[in-house]
Amino acid sequence: MTKWTNILLLSLFFFSACRTNKHAITQNSQSSGREHSFIFQNDIQTANFNRLKVNANIQGNLLSTNASIKIIRDSVIQISIQPALGIEVAQINLRPKEIIVLNKINALYFLSNYELLNKKYNLMLDYYSLQGILLNEAFIPNEAGITQVKIDSSYTQVPFPDGTMLKSKANKVSLPTDFIVNKKQKINHTSITMPLALVSCRYNDFEKKADILFPTIYRISIMEGPKYKKADISIQSVSFNKSVKINLSNLSNYKQVDTFEQLIP
After folding, report:
1. Contacts of 12 (CB under 8 A, 6+ apart)
2. N or C: less crowded end of the chain, CB within 10 Å?
3. Per-residue pLDDT tens over the stretch 9-32
4. 198 phi-psi bin (left φ>0, alpha ψ -120 to 50, beta other)
5. 170-203 residue pLDDT tens
6. Residue 6: partners with Cβ closer than 8 Å, 6 or more residues away
7. Is residue 48 within 8 Å of residue 70, measured between CB atoms?
8. Gap between the Cα atoms of 168 and 261, Å rounded
């Protein structure tokens, strides 16, 4: 695949409205007397990652690009790829049920849904998992509005150096997920175990952003046996809970293609 196909694929895979408590873990006893709930969500309804630097390694192919991301919780994630001089060459619009990827240079677009893409690429990601990864939050795959993780019924709690690991219990609906929570009550690491791949995100360099303790470095990897895709994402500017304008392109000005690969002539 070409350089731009790799960048688009990387962006699509990685950058997948309830009010929640602000960057805290709260333990509450349940009626059983044994079960507890942990709440560790960010109080974020909108996010605007104004400037991102992405350095990727796709099986030895090194790529670098600039990007920006806008999020309206449980509604839309818009990713803009801007390799140089702020010129947008590609745009990805993720909604809970659909994905639209645009090649802005050649006026092409690809419309799909998560089920079709997951079947082709074996990644089984969904909107809410991508949103949770981006917002440094806990999530249950394919479920919206999670505000708490129930220990004993849904997750087991395992002591971990400098923190706690929460491991989801096996069930027939959701993929296994792990979260490592540090002593500052933030998620340090997230992983999703899929039938043919392991997706993980490690968070580093937390800073206060509008009273929200938030990571400025994401280290994301997708491992499919010997195949791998890795990316270091540096957040250079971000704002939360401010008005976000989603710039939707008029698709009548674009030509639709049948496959993702056709976006790159």
Report:
1. 92, 99, 101, 117, 260
2. C
3. 555 554 432 223 333 333 333 333
4. beta
5. 776 678 899 998 888 889 999 998 888 888 999 9
6. 56, 58, 61, 63
7. yes
8. 35
